[in-house]
Amino acid sequence: MVKQLLLFIALTLRHNKKQTFILKSSIMKKFLLLIIISLTCIVITNANPLPVPPPMIGVSEIGFDSDGNWLIELGYKNLYDSYNDADSIFICSSTGRAKLKNLKFDDFAGIMLVRNDSLLTNLDINPAGDSIQIEYYYFYEKLVYEPLVFGNYRNATLMCPKTEQSIASYFVFDSMNIYNSSSKSSNVYSIDKSPTFGVENDSTGMCGTLNGKIYDLDGHLLTNSIHNFSTHGLFNFQPFSDGSYSVRAFSLKNKISQIYYSEGYNIFTAHILPIEYNMMPDSVITLDIHIQKITAVDEIKSNPISVFKVSPNPVKNLVFNYEIFIPVKSSTSYFELISPTGQRIGLFPITENTGNINLPANTTNGIYTLRLFVNNKKYGTSKIIVAGK
Fold first, then answer.
1. CA-to-CA distance for 60 and 148, rounded, in angstroms?
2. Structural domain of 272
3. For the chain, what is the mean pLDDT?
4. How many other C-beta atoms are found inside a 10 Å radius of the C-beta of residue 371?
5. 3-class SS at 284?
6. Which of 77, 71, 187, 183 lies closest to 138, judged by CA?
7. pLDDT single digits (tens) 103-143
8. Please, which of 42, 146, 227, 271 could form a disulfide with 293 given CB 3.0 to 4.6 Å?
9. Does residue 33 form part of some domain?
10. Which secondary structure element, helix H or strand E, spans residue 206, and what is its range?
């Protein structure tokens, strides 16, 4: 293409000379500059093409009629006719493997319905339980999507769908975002009481509700939390101000031992006391969440502002005022002060909801931990800064 463009330029200049047409020097320079820029863009584009995400093909939905005949809805993404196509697609079950007769992708993302007559050979899928996997080839490279395992097949987390139900996926095939190549691990298969074969799935009919209370590392309710949590099988959620939570949960048998939360652009893990449940559409299951360990430096704990506050902070002249928002009239109510090195500096008995605390004269500057105890039970924690005497 570059050679042809240069030849065109030469012939044009030659023709212009024969016609005694004289271009002004400034115009000629601009014309040549434009040609050089165009040639540079062509060379750079051909040498460094934009990366194309690999295709992704998997089971979007599966169901059975009363005779046990199956119907599969394939979801595909990042597929472009004659540019980024899959070379072939196979559907695999525990007893066989069959190739699709015809491949037709209408857009970069979409769905297609597959029955036994869509395959070159018949494929048996056991409605009582099976493992289904999609295998496809892209530039002669074999790619596979995570298997859908259900019913009485080993390690299944999904019940057999009834005749009026299906098993459906919600997260992976997002046709609205061309550049989002979602991780296969984010996919969730769920019992769906309202099948939508031939239409892209939403979460209608796929979820129940998981609710309860969530407790911090000290066993206290996680009140006034600012964190959003997420994990496999649940939508993202944030606890209510009183430490309770309620979240939509996909209909599957699930075991959760860790949840994730974000602080800025960082994602951290919170290990919890394992919980297990078997959710069905529209069911409500109550389970409390107990945080056991976290990976972040900052602790996930109840917001101490809801229990007490200190002023001024930073503390000056070794004196600060406090205000407590829960009843404290008790013979065993006190503040405990912990040094930056983890040592107890002192206990300060309290009898009223407001007052002041005088720190020991030898208290040095630094960041301290102040803990509130009522009836010997810890109710809140805050950081205070001692900044001067």
1. 10
2. 207-294
3. 80
4. 18
5. strand
6. 77
7. 877 777 888 999 999 999 999 999 999 999 999 988 778 88
8. 271
9. no
10. none
Instruction: Please confirm whether the linkage preceding 340 is cis (ω < 30° from 0).
Output: no
**26 occurs within a structural domain:** no
Whether residue 274 is found in the same domain as residue 250:
yes
pLDDT digits (tens, 9 = 90+) for 318-330: 999 999 888 887 7
Q: Tell me the CATH number at 321.
A: 2.60.40.1930
Would you call 66 exposed, middle or buried from its count of C-beta atoms within 10 A (0-12, 13-18, 19+)? exposed
Work out how many domains the chain is built from and give that number. 3
Burial (0-12, 13-18, 19+ Cβ within 10 Å), 285: middle
19 in any annotated domain: no
Tell which wins on pLDDT, 268 or 99: 99
Among 174, 149, 153, smallest CA distance to 77 is for 174
Q: Are 216 and 301 in contact (CB under 8 A)?
A: yes
The pTM of the whole model exceeds 0.90: no
What gap in Å lies between CA 175 and CA 109, rounded to an integer? 5
Say if residue 247 is in the same domain as residue 364. Answer: no
Query: Same domain, yes or no, for 228 and 310?
Result: no
